[in-house]
Amino acid sequence: MAVNRSVSRDVPKCWRKGGDSTQYRHGFKAGLPFSRGGAPEPGISGYLSSDRTYSSGGRALDRATVRSF
């Protein structure tokens, strides 16, 4: 019995492997249940303090929180 490994017809062409990355990105963003709007980056009033470290599999990630002066 042969297995059909072709891409499903209901997947947009721009999502298929080998497509233009700009089209892929646009199609991907259009399929999300939300849209991002432009806004200026918020400023912080204070300083960043490293307070926790998360690690797994030999990798670590530090977390920093904003503290007021």
Structure in words:
By secondary structure, this protein is an alpha+beta fold. It has a domain at 9-33. It is 14% helix and 28% strand. The protein is built from one helix and two strands. It has one helix spanning 21-30; strands at 47-56, 59-67. It has a two-stranded antiparallel sheet. The longest helix is centred in the middle third of the chain and has 10 residues, at 21-30. It is flat. The model has no long low-confidence stretch (mean pLDDT 80).
> Helicity level, as a percent range?
10-25%
Instruction: Give the class from helix and strand content and strand pairing.
Output: alpha+beta
The profile of the biggest β sheet is: 2 strands, antiparallel
Question: What is the overall silhouette?
Answer: flat
Q: What would you report as the Rg, rounded to the nearest angstrom?
A: 21 Å
Strand arrangement within the widest β-sheet reads 1-2
Oligomer: single chain
Number of helices: 1
How many distinct beta strands? 2
Strand content: 25-35%
Distance between the termini: 70 Å
Low-confidence stretches: none
Sequence of secondary-structure elements: HEE
- Overall mean pLDDT stands at 80
Relevant terms:
1 helix, alpha+beta, 69 residues, 28% strand, 14% helix
SSE topology sketch:
Layout: H1 21-30, E1 47-56, E2 59-67
Antiparallel strand pairs: 1-2
